[in-house]
Structure formats: structure tokens, C-alpha cells
Amino acid sequence: MDMLRRREKGSWLKLATCLGAAGALLAGGVAYGAAATIVGQGDNTFNATNYAIDQGDTSTLQIAGGTHNATASQSGPDGKALFRSSTISGGSTAVDGTEYLTTGNYPFICTIHPTTMQATLSVSSNGTPKPRPQISLKLNSRKLAKVVAKGKLQVEINSSAKADGASVTAKLGKTTIARAPDLSLTAGPQREILKVGKQGRKKLDGREKATIVLNGSVPFGFPATATGKLK
After folding, report:
1. Which pTM value belongs to this model?
2. How far apart are the C-alpha atoms of 138 and 83, rounded to whole Å?
3. Beta-carbon contacts of residue 162 (< 8 Å; ≥ 6 apart)
4. What is the structure's pLDDT at 138?
């Protein structure tokens, strides 16, 4: 009798677990949770058509089969997808950028299977979105002759938060004379040296002064610009 009761209890626990998991993952095609996991399946579909998260949460892409990503259909302030994950063939990865979203519905796709993998990320009014990273730029170099001689341009970048993948370009008129791609920024000010190429030094050489326009970008943040003069 005791053995029968234990078996019945075990069966009910298994059933409750299965029903709970199913209810948490799918209810009318909606995946719920504080930071609902987006699942890419082996048949090149997502496991739901809608995923619900709170403001400030970072969603996750999990692979149950195949090779997939989760990429917003809408562009963000940096000119790239509003949120995006890496393309992976197994395991899980963060869907970066969802932590900055405000309340609303945001369609996304897998860029590898855009016709069969389409869904919507619904952001509730709960929670608070994280502030988007911001940067400001300043040209620290002042001596034109020194920049031409050494081929180096010193720039100060002030970032509101730690960020990877930032970039800065320096232009003289329409010509890009220096570029620093894929920068890792810490919160606060930091100095970067931009290498001035041969063409850039040639454009600067022989001038008495030059106006340099700096343009910067930071993932998921707004672009920045600044102007400085070399004499």
C-alpha cells in the first residue's frame, strides 16, 4: 500500500511539473517569465510567437537545434539592430539590447531563417529600462606639426558606462584621417591614440591649421560628435 501511494504521489509530481513548465513556456503561443528565454528549434522555428519580459531585463537565446540568432527588425540609435544576439549552434547567449527597451512590442527574426523564424518581444510596464550608454568626445591633440610628425591623434572619450565595441573616427573635410574601431570603454574618461595614416598625414602636411571632426559610436547608444582644431 505504501509503495502504491509513493508511486501515485510521484506520478502527480511529474504531472504537475510538466504542466507547470508548459504553462510557463507557452500559453497561447506566448512565452512568459521575468526574462523569457527565446528558443531556436531544429525545424528552424522559434518555440513561441511572442515572448514577454519586464523593462530592464536581458533576454536569452537558447538553441534546441540548428544554428540561429535573435535580431530585432527595427534599428536602434547606433544604426544597428535594436537588440541582437550572437549566432550560435548550441547552448545559450544573451540577447543584448533588450535591457534598454521601454514598454511596447518589438518584432524580431533569425537572420539565417527570416521567413520561418519570426516572433515578437513584448516588454511590460513593470521594471525600469537601463539607461542607454552615452559617450562624449574631445580632441586633446593641439599641435599640427606634432600630429604630422608622429602620426598620432590623441582623443578623450568619456563614457557613461562600461561598453565594448565602441569606435571613433577623425575626419578632415570628407577624408577620414584616423580611426579606432572596436574599443573597450570604462565608465568615465579615458584617452585613446588614433593612428593617422599616410594619406591623412599628407592631407595635414603643409597646413597652418586644420579643423578635425570626431565621430563616435557605442553599441545601443546614440552617436557622438565633436570638433577640434590643430595649429
Report:
1. 0.81
2. 29
3. 185, 186, 187
4. 98
